[in-house]
Amino acid sequence: MRTGCGSRYGSRPVLAVGARLGSARPGVLVVLLAAGALAVVVAVLVMRGRFAVSGSESGPGPGSGPGVGAGVDDRGEAGVVLVATSGAAGSAAGSVAPAASVPVRGEAVGMVTFNRDLAPVVYAQCAPCHRPGETAPFELLTYEDVRKRSATILEVIGSRYMPPWLPEAGHEPLLDERRLTDEEIGLFRRWVDGGMPEGDPADLPPRPRWTEGWVLGTPDLVVKLEEAYRLPAEGADVYRNFILPVPTKERRYVRAFEFRPSSRAVHHAFLRIDGTGQSRRMDAKDAEVGFGGMDTPPAAETPGGYFLSWQPGRQPSALPPGLAWSLAAGADVVLLMHMQLRGREELVQPSIGFYFTDQPPTNTPVKIGLRSYAIDIPPGVTNHVVEERVTLPVASDLLALLPHAHYLARRVEAYAEVPGQPRRMLLVIPSWDFNWQSDFRFARPVPLPAGTTLGMRYVYDNSTNNVRNPNQPPVHVKFGLQTRDEMGELWIQLLARDEAGRDRLETVAQMRTLKAISELNQFKLRENPRDAEAMAELAKVSLTLGDLSRAEGVLRLALELRPDLDDVRYHLGLVLLQQNKLTEAEAEFLEALRLNPDHYQARNNAGLACLRLGRLREAEAHFREVLRTRPGDAIAKRNLELVLRSRPGAPR
Fold it and tell me: Would you call 195 helix, strand, or coil by DSSP?
């Protein structure tokens, strides 16, 4: 509580604040104001309940003596006691005079005003989004902005719906927290209860200077959606994927990126990188800009062990030296965007600024995914629990967590279990909200010893009690990628202590990924036993694990159902190439190219089959064609060098 610091008696300054007078009782805060020969002693009792104060310095007892200026009101706010004493300023001795009418300018002590008390909170917690050019639907910058929406603000901060910050306090500290403290919420409530006074204009702090344009300065490269997407005025939320080609001719190392949504309709965005052209082909098949849904091609991934996302109010930041991520030449950025319709048609044309460094990464995080496909929730069930765990083989530092679920999730927990120690909660979201999902970065890396088990525990509510349940009445919900379905994922970003440790973490991550792909596609086949694409994904797992016979059998079965799938042809060619069945492999690669002329991997491997068959001219033509469309392709470059060195008379 503020106790009068900065008040004036006439125009004289405060001489002493917080000095205690002799035997003044605990809880009495004394402020001495100089006023010539007269000193005014302002005593503020910080206590609950009603009281009275003696005008004597020693205080013979409650209510004994003159000078009681105010008590505590019904809310327990501090009262103010003015005691006039004679003598020089700062003297506490002398007889007590009757209470004087002292013209202290300013608000009563204990009164909450906008200018002095609320404006700093509003500027720090609300205005970053609620200002011109940002994503919030209205501004919260001035007294009048806040006053006219005070009832709504009190409701949303009291329920902690705003600011949009999901994790509860009391666990590992997080970066960029947007949480109001209990004291700040109480301050706003007292302001409303007190009549919402504006306060002394002199108390209003300067409005923050927000950076205009790019927060991190001029980017090294800006990519922008070539054609704006026309967002309709009405209807359901839009989930759409946009392709932004990156015009680089060589690999670059990204130390930071900054996303600019161009419209307040953009609720959040995730960035993925696709170096295969698969996402671009999906875009070409859609009549509108981009393609819909939340399901992107497997090739569209976040680089390495990084989380790349944007939410309103989140400020961009640079990665520490040595942790830049790699952006391949000619790759596409895939923007997964959630947009909320605002009652009028508008154009959405996002852009991304990239900040490069010449320093290659000296260390790279590892991202391990915990995913559950055992989600099967009958209507009315209020406590469906999903759990997954992984044990770390080496000591590591935990950098960040990214939970993901849809509308039925109620409680999200992430924890660590060290052998011999109690469970340690890392992140707890007591009221999950799909609309405000994000990754959460720890303020400091969390050290974890080898043998630590990291786990997730999600609780789902498919009843009418769940206000976010999109189905009323509730319906049976299973795992699925669409928002009408449900998901449960926890992505864990770890940094190993050395290269050997990183290799072991990568092995764990890869095995978790293969397990997830297998479980996902087994689920799809249970739903549709003739799903050829799911069969192909299972065959890829077998191929990765070295089971060539099983992979070939599943791929041929998939081709019986869907002979038009170029990627199935390509992977069958890979199996045959590894079995040294070169002519058959070449035929499958060429058929994949016939179905999809842009399949550069099929062309490269067709060239490799020709090279092994001794048909150097055809091999060279394949590799040069890949390099014509993808000048930075390192594999095609190496293969072309092999061809040139294999010619008679070529230097070895």
Answer: coil
Q: What single string gives the DSSP state of each residue in 297-347?
A: -TT-B-STT---EE-TTPPP-PPPTT--EEE-TT-EEEEEEEE---SS-EE
Q: CA separation (Å) from 459 to 7, 142, 231, 362, 586? A: 53, 41, 34, 39, 50
**Residues 539-543: contacts with CB within 8 Å, 24+ apart?**
539/568, 539/571, 540/571, 541/514, 541/517, 543/571, 543/574, 543/575
CA distance 305 to 96: 73
Domain span at 263: 221-357
pTM of the shown model: 0.71
Transcribe 81-148 into DSSP letters: EEEEE-SSTT---SPBPPPP---EESPPTT---IIIIIHHHHHHHTTTTSSTTSSSSS---SHHHHHT
Output the domain CATH number for residue 585: 1.25.40.10
Please state, in angstroms and as integers, the Cα–Cα distance from residue 334 to each residue in 213, 240, 272, 277, following that order.
23, 10, 5, 11
The tens digit of pLDDT for each residue in 491-544 reads: 999 999 999 999 999 999 999 999 999 999 999 999 999 999 999 999 999 999
Number of domains in the chain: 5
Rounded to whole angstroms, how far apart are CA atoms 80 and 4? 10
Instruction: Tell me, yes or no, whether 235 and 352 share the same domain.
Output: yes
Question: Which DSSP string corresponds to 606-633?
Answer: HHHHHHHTT-HHHHHHHHHHHHHH-TT-
